[in-house]
Amino acid sequence: MRLKTSHWHKSVTDQDHSNIVKVSAMTTKTEKTIYKISTLEKGLNILEILAENGSLSVTELAKLSGQNRSASHRFLAALKDLGYLHQGADSKYSLSLKLFEIANKIDDIDTVRSLARSFMRELSNLYGETVNLGRLDGSDIIVVDAVLGTEVIKFDSHIGDRSPAHTLAMGKAILASRSDEEQQEYLNKCVFKALTSHTITDKQSLQSELVKIKNQGYSIDDEEWALGLRCIAIPIFNAPLPSYAISVSGPTSRMNPEKIEKLRSDLMMAGRAISDQLRQG
């Protein structure tokens, strides 16, 4: 049997040429990206796309990023685990406020903070207590602005402070105004950590509290976050369902029922005014 050497030689030559082309292309690509980390670039690109487009599904993100659905899902899951994203009840992904903690600027925070600031100062001057602006981020509330009161208080708020939503008047005010589906999702995922002996520590109690808050339009934190501290809060409707809330807090010795009642009226009036301005754009 005669070996077809010419055919064999041609096949080897073609294969060698193909390998050379591939190696050459790989070398060129490596030289161009020697100072870049492609995985990091893709992750940052996803954050930028979400910042520009808001909540997106895996499919929507894949289309905008130019990656396949499987790769997009892996990146989204990793970014969620790292705390940069959170996943809503509709399974869509959106930015968390972890970037705000790093860069102190994200989403519509500047707009809400700018509109709320004058009302916060007025409330603080009128009652002498600390006024906070908070935003729901996943299962937590992050303080995005604070006006310290003229009266002495043991617990001062700091921008960037993060606490479980169910322990704060601001958190409960926001949750009470969210949809039934979002409330149920929070209740199912909530880790009912007790910060004081007054903290709500079970699903049924929090659910009942949210119904009460929704009916009355305001929320009270009665030493649930810190002993000796009492707060009243109202939601800020920056959208059909709120993400923000304003609270006035002070020691229980000053935040008595009479003061709370006076505060309630002025605070709710301020909340309506801020919400109306946000809706008007």
TrEMBL record:
Coiled coil (residue ranges): none
Keywords for the protein's UniProt record, in alphabetical order: DNA-binding, Transcription, Transcription regulation
SMART domains from the UniProt entry: HTH_ICLR (SM00346)
Gene Ontology BP, a term: negative regulation of DNA-templated transcription
GO MF annotation terms: DNA binding; DNA-binding transcription factor activity
Key word Transport present: no
Domain (IclR-ED): residue spans on this chain: 98-280
HTH iclR-type domain ranges (all copies): 37-97
A Pfam match: IclR_C
PANTHER family given in the database record: HELIX-TURN-HELIX TRANSCRIPTIONAL REGULATOR, ICLR FAMILY, HTH-TYPE TRANSCRIPTIONAL REGULATOR RV1719
Protein name, per record: Transcriptional regulator, IclR family
